[in-house]
Amino acid sequence: MPMVTRLCVALTLVFLAACDPVARAPATPSAIVGTRAVIQRHGQELFAEVTKVADKLVTTEYFWNDERVVVHNYYRGLYNVSGIEFGYQYEADFDYSTLEKLFPLKVGKEVSFSGNTKNINRGTAIDFWANIHVIGEKTISLSSGDRKVFVVDIVTEYKKGNEAKRKTNTVYYDPEFSMVLKSVIHEDGYQSYWRAVSVELPGNARKPSPTQQRRAGTVMI
To answer: pLDDT digit string (tens) for 146-169?
Structure first.
């Protein structure tokens, strides 16, 4: 093969690799263990703390009155795939590699997938279909400083027997913190809403006191 041809092929391969969004996505989320957010939800103040980063999962624990109420494991800090709510352990069963197609995030990117969510304690499962669509970018103001976020619509349809429900969750995701800073949920004709008012990195954050998991909780994130 002539030298010029080999050079052109090499440059083409480099160009394609640079344009491949998955190739440019960080191998692991950029979340930092110990990052802590103060959250306002319907007049209540909660705290969210990143407690673990393993491979592409970011574990965030939510505290109310210094008691842990919820644990969520988010894929790259964006999409909740497992955790503990109301004392029950759950896990979404689907091909996680589908989510990787979203990263690095860019307005217009979109994925759809189906699976089921298992209640580990009860031994039950509910089928679901989900669509995740990056719809915009925005700057939101926190007391700790302005943050640039992606606005992402997450639509989920659940089906159990002949019953079907639909939920839309619009989240405001900070890619640097690998953390959702705002969530607006529409489901069954109702809206629920929460937002972070400040985010502190480790070393500045006040740590919650030793906690025990709250019994059949009253706070849902």
So the answer is: 999 999 999 999 987 788 899 999
- Nearest partner of 70 among 80, 60, 79, 78, judged by Cα: 60
Read off the pLDDT band of 3 (50, 70, 90): very low
Say which residue the tokens 């998991």 belong to.
213
Q: Which amino acid is at 40?
A: Q
Whole-model pTM: value is 0.81
pLDDT higher than 50, residue 32? yes
Three-state SS for the chain is CCHHHHHHHHHHHHHHHHHCHHHHCCCCCCCCCCCEEEEEECCEEEEEEEEEEECCEEEEEEEECCEEEEEEEEECCCEEEEEEECCEEEEEECCCHHHHCCCCCCCCCEEEEEEEEEECCCCEEEEEEEEEEEEEEEEECCCCCCEEEEEEEEEEEEEECCEEEEEEEEEEEECCCCEEEEEEEEECCEEEEEEEEEEECCCCCCCCCCCCECCCCCCCC
Contact 173, 184 (CB under 8 A): no
Task: Write out the two tokens for 143.
Answer: 């007391």
Q: What's the rounded Cα separation, in Å, for the pair 178 and 58?
A: 8
